[in-house]
Specification:
Elements (H helix, E strand, L loop, with lengths): L4 H14 L2 H21 L6 H16 L2 H14 L3 E5 L2 H14 L4 E4 L3 H5 L2 H7 L3 E4 L2 H8 L16 H12 L7 H18 L2 E4 L3 E3 L4 E6 L3 H7 L3 E7 L3 E2 L5 H12 L7 E5 L13 E7 L3 H5 L15 H5 L1 H6 L10 H11 L2 H4 L11 H5 L6 H14 L5 H14 L2 H4 L4 H16 L13 H13 L1
Parallel strand pairs: 1-10, 2-3, 2-4, 4-7, 5-8, 7-10
Antiparallel strand pairs: 5-6, 6-9
Helix pairs in contact: 2-12, 16-19
Length: 464
């Protein structure tokens, strides 16, 4: 089987980005600040491992009984005055959203940070229908102006320096080229305030869906989420079916874990619980609220006995920040909405296993992602499960199969390993691995004699 187009693009981009020293400098700086904050944030826990164990157990329990909790959520939310729409894939979700907006003659939309709307490419689809859509999260707003996709699950503009952003604003808005981060933020705030007031509809994601109360839990740091919900008359929520948690009190467990692992805060600045459109006695809030529950391949993952545990993910981004591969090749190289270890596990099942199987091989299997996951998803083990599935389904090239067969044959016998000297071994290594090793790295040199041979020689001398 040949490499997919996505695989070829991935390899090309990875080679370019990994050796871009300026890019690496920016990423290392931004992640170092994250590391320092998270270390401090986690200090609030007396027993962090216990909290992670509880969170992982509860989320996995819900995933295995998903239908029950989703139906409970729908009933409660509908009773609260909201409406629920089920969408099987991205096309259904987009069609429903556009139908809703067209019916209400919506021309302007404000949107808070949401990875699931990136997943269905909502912005591009709305723009094609002549509907203005503005990202209101600072990081998302920046990458939208740059014409880019988010680089990271939590920090979309992690790959840009303050100088990059100042230059972008100068080109887009005519601001001075030397604006400070504070001045850039103030400028963005003023611009977005007008957008909130003018918007006909607000679209958000959801960190959690609470089955017990039929509520949406949304946490953020800038206030843009609550303004996207409360200013417009219409509020649309797009949420994956895996976002469900049983009870309101479960937020006491999940919100601190999400904030400490995502940004290093004890708790994010704005934590909102929305249970439907505004009531008669309420002054603020939308007149209408609609939740779109999206499948989009999640039931494919749910059908996998092992990999379904990845649906427990709470999108904190911690696994990306510790991953040596992500830190070297960057978020855009993956070519998918979800990058890093979690993206490598779930993307093949959400989209197309044949086209994206290579992502599960883009890992050192160091296990750092598993160690930091707040819900204890064994990410490096699931990457191995994906690899096994790829092999079992014939997703490999002729060269890959022959290489593995030959390597297994040679490496399984000490006699065969020691049959040739170092010179012959180095020649074979150059012929076989030179291209896959890459043009920027030197192949390791195999010693003239193996450890086994040296050991035997040494013992002979000692015995003599």
């Amino acid at each position: 089987m040949k490499q997919s187009l996505q695989h070829k693009i991935f390899l090309k981009k990875a080679e370019e980005v990994a050796f871009d020293k300026e890019h690496r400098k920016k990423i290392q700086f931004n992640i170092s600040r994250y590391d320092a904050a998270v270390k401090k944030g986690k200090a609030i826990y007396k027993d962090l491992d216990l909290a992670r164990t509880r969170a992982g157990y509860l989320k996995y329990k819900v995933i295995n009984d998903l239908e029950k909790y989703l139906i409970e959520f729908e009933n409660k939310f509908t009773n609260n005055g909201g409406k629920v729409i089920w969408a099987d894939d991205d096309k259904e979700a987009i069609d429903e959203i556009i139908k809703i907006l067209k019916k209400r003659k919506v021309k302007k939309v404000v949107k808070s940070k949401s990875m699931i709307t990136e997943e269905i490419e909502l912005n591009a689809n709305l723009i094609r229908k002549k509907i203005e859509v503005v990202e209101t999260d600072l990081g998302e707003f920046i990458v939208q102006q740059a014409g880019q996709k988010p680089y990271h699950i939590v920090t979309p503009a992690m790959h840009l320096s303050k100088e990059d952003i100042a230059k972008l604003y100068h080109e887009k808005f005519g601001t001075p080229e030397d604006l400070s981060p504070t001045e850039l933020t103030d400028f963005t705030r003023e611009l977005l305030r007008k957008k909130f007031v003018e918007a006909d509809a607000g679209i958000t994601g959801a960190n959690f869906l609470i089955a017990e109360t039929g509520s949406i839990a949304l946490t953020e740091n800038e206030g843009n989420g609550i303004m996207s919900m409360s200013f417009p008359k219409l509020h649309i929520v797009v949420a994956g079916i895996e976002k469900i948690i049983p009870k309101l009190e479960d937020l006491d467990l999940y919100w601190p874990l999400l904030s400490t692992h995502g940004t290093g805060q004890n708790l994010t600045a704005y934590s909102n619980i929305i249970s439907g459109p505004k009531k008669r006695i309420e002054k603020d809030g939308p007149k209408e609220m609609i939740v779109i529950l999206l499948n989009n391949g999640r039931t494919n993952l749910l059908a996998k006995e092992r990999q379904r545990q990845a649906l427990s993910c709470i999108r904190c981004g911690a696994c990306l920040n510790v991953c040596p591969v992500y830190k070297n090749i960057g978020g855009h190289t993956y070519g998918t909405t979800y990058s890093g270890p979690i993206g490598a596990v779930i993307t093949p099942h959400l989209i197309d296993f044949g086209k994206y199987r290579h992502l599960s091989f883009a890992s050192s299997l160091c296990g750092a992602c598993t160690e930091v996951c707040p819900v204890k998803i064994p990410l490096h083990e699931l990457l191995l499960v994906n690899r096994k599935e790829a092999m079992e389904n014939g997703f490999y090239t002729y060269f890959e199969k022959k290489s593995v067969d030959i390597a297994a044959f040679v490496l399984s016998s000490r006699k065969r390993l020691d049959m040739f000297n170092g010179k012959v071994k180095n020649t074979v290594l150059k012929l076989v691995a030179k291209n896959s090793w890459g043009p920027r790295r030197e192949l390791p040199v195999i010693a003239e004699k193996s450890f086994s041979q040296l050991w035997k020689e040494q013992n002979k001398e000692d015995n003599y």
